[in-house]
Specification:
By secondary structure, this protein is α+β, with helices and mostly antiparallel strands. It has helices at 17-39, 50-73, and strands at 4-8, 76-85, 91-100. Strands 1-2-3 form a three-stranded antiparallel β-sheet, with no helix packed on it. A hairpin with a 5-residue loop joins strand 2 (76-85) and strand 3.
């Protein structure tokens, strides 16, 4: 097969698995810190409502967890295009699309 190349809509799947787990970690940390501030800390700081800051952090953490889960579950999609040139000068183009998890 002459001129075969792979065109991917995503980068290599293995290199980005760490980003997904980082998303889970960051989301979980934000959620835990936010809930601790919102529910367990009873300290008064002038000009700052720690309860409100905690709820905001918890909400952002939950959103990060949800977005990471959705992104991870979309899987990887790739497209392979093969071009074959024949001796008589004609060309055949074959395209394959695959979904990987």
């Amino acid at each position: 097969m002459l001129g075969t190349r792979k065109v991917t809509n995503r980068h290599e799947a293995g290199s980005h698995r760490k980003e997904y787990t980082m998303g889970y970690g960051v989301g979980a940390i934000l959620l835990v810190v936010g809930l601790v501030l919102a529910l367990a800390v009873h300290v008064s700081v002038s000009g700052v409502d720690l309860t409100l800051v905690g709820w905001i952090l918890a909400a952002v953490g939950a959103v990060v967890l949800i977005l990471t889960a959705v992104t991870l579950n979309t899987g990887g999609r790739s497209r392979t295009v093969a071009r074959r040139r024949h001796a008589d000068g004609t060309e055949t183009v074959e395209e394959r699309r695959t979904d990987t998890l």
